[in-house]
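Pasting as-is:
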Amino acid sequence: MSRLFARKTLLGLGILATLVLIITVNIIGGNLLRGVRLDLTQTKLYTLSPATERALQQVEEPITLRLFISDRLTREVPSFAAYAQRVRDLLRDYAAGSRGRLTVEVLSPDPFSPIEDRAVAYGLQGVPIDQGGEQVYFGLVGANSTDDQEVIAFFAPERERFLEYDLTKMVAKLARPKQRTVGLISTLPITADPAAQQQGGSGTWLIYDQISQNFKVQMLETTVTQIPADIDVLWLVHPANLPPATLYAIDQFVLKGGRALVMVDPVSEAAVSRGRMLAMQGVPGPASASALEPLFKAWGVQLVADKVVADRRNARKVSAGGAATRVQAADYLAWLSVPKAQLAENDSLTGDLQSLSFASAGILEPVEGATTKLTPLASSSVVSMKLAADKVRGQPDILGILRGFQSEGQALTMAARVTGPAKTAYPDALPEGASAEGRVMESQQPLNLVIVADTDMLEERFWAQTQNFFGQKVAVPVAGNGDFIANTLDNLAGGSTLSGLTARTVIDRPFTAIRALEQAAENSFRAKEQELQDRIKETEKKLADLRGREAPKKGQPQTASLTPEQAKEIETFRADLIRTRAELRDVQLALRTDIEALQTRIRLWVIGAVPVALVVFALGLGVWRRQRARRAAQAQR
C-alpha cells in the first residue's frame, strides 16, 4: 500500500514539476524571444518585406503614427479584434525597425470624448455599430515634423492582406514629403474617361488615382516639343500618331539620361470601346493601335507588327458563344494571367509580384545588331503562338481562336527592360517644329527604359475589384498590375523606397493537375466540335448541290418537296449529328470522372492526412509508454 502511495505521490510531484517547467519556459522564452515569429504563409504575410525595411531605414525625421481604435469594436466584433491586434503588432515592428524615429500611439475614441473629436477632425471614418447610431473608429493618422499628414480613414477588412502595403506607403510619403514628378503623355482617357463618368464615377482610372498618391503627375500634351526639365520620369501610355516633333523631344529626353515607362499596344481594347462611344457623339476616338517608331528602332527593340500573344497555359476563362451557339466557359487565349514563374525574379520591378494580367498584349523582340540589351520582365509560357491582331479586334471568335491554336513552342516577351547605349533616331534633318537647342546625337549615359506591349493592363477590370464599404470605395487587387506600375515609376525616377513593395495580393492557387486534365479534355472536345461543324458544312454543300441539280426550269413553279436523295442525305446527317453528340457527352463525362476522382484523392489526403498522423502518433506514444512501464516494472522486481 505504501509503495502504491509513494508511486502516486511521485506521479503528482512529476506533474506539478512539469507544469512549473512549462510556465517557467514560457515566461523566459517570452522575454528572450519577444518579437520573434515563425511565418509559414506562402506570401510571408507576417514578415516585413525588404521594401518596408528600406523605407524604415530611410526615415530621417520623427514620424508619429496615431492608431484610433474603439474598444467596443474589438470587444463586440471578434474579427476586428484579431485584425486590430495584427495592426498593433505590425506598428510595433515598424517602430522597432525605425531606429527610434517612428513613434506609435494607440488611442480609444469613446463616444463624445475629446479623442473622438480628434478622430473626426483628422478625417477618420466612423462606422455605426448598432441601431442607436453609435460610431466606432479604426483608422490611422501619420504626421511628420513639418506637419504633413497622411490618413487611413478606416482599416476595411477587405484590405487586410494589403496592410503592410498601405502602412509602408504612408511612412514613405511622410519620410519624403517632396514628391517626384511623372510626365504623362496619353491618348487614352485616363483622367477623363467617359465610360467611368457615365457610371457616376470621377472619370479617372484607378491606376491614375494610385499613382497620384505617390507622385506629382504632370499631364503633357501629345504635341509637346520639349519635355520639361523638372520631369523625373516620362510615362507614355498608348502613344498613337504622335507628331515627329514630339517623338524628337522624347528621343532627346531619353538620350540626355531621362528615364521612361513606355506602354504601346497592337490592339488597345480600351481605345476601341471608348472610340465606339465617342463616335456616337460625333467625336473621333483614339487610335486602336500604337507603336513608337522610329524611336524603338533606335533603342534596339521592335513591336512585332499586327500580332498579339495567344497563350494556352495562362489563358483566362470567359463566357463564349452567342445566338448561334450555346454560351459556355472557354479559355480566351488573348487574355492572360501571367504567374510568378513567367516574371523576372531577379528584377525589383517584378521579383515580389505574384501575377500580372494582360489583354491582347503585343510581342517585343530585340532588333538585330542592337547596341542595347532587352531583358524580359514578363513573358508568356512556351505553349504560345503569335496570333493575328485582327482576330481579337471587335467581337473576337473565342472558340475559333481556341480551335485554331498551334503552339510555336517559345515564350513571347510582353514587358521588358531596355538598357545600354543608343544613338538618336534623327541623325539627319530635324522634324518640323523641333528645337535644335542642346541637341545630342547619342546617349550621354546608358538607357534605362521599361517597355510594355499592352495598355489594357491599366484598366481596373483586369487587375482590381472595387467594393463599397459604408460609402467608401475600397480597391482590392487581384493581380499585381498596380504594384508593377508604381514600382517601375519609382525605380525609374531614381528612388528605391517603393521598389519591391507589393500588396499581399489574393493569390489564385489552381490545382495544376486538374487544370491539365481540363485542358486535355477540352482540346478533345474542341476537336470533336470542329469535326461536327465540318460535317455540317459538308452536308450543307451536298444539299446545295442536290438542290442545284433539281432546280426547276424558268417559268416552272418551285416545289417544296424533297427528292429521295435529299431525304436520305438529311437522315444521314441527323444520325451523324446524334452520334457525334453522344461522343461529345462521352468526352465530357470522361472529363468529369477524371477530375472528380482526382479531387476525391486530394480531399482524402488533405482532410485525412492530419487525423491519420495524429492517430499514428498516439498509437506510437501508447506503445512506447507501455514498453516503458513494462521495463520499469521489471526493474523493480
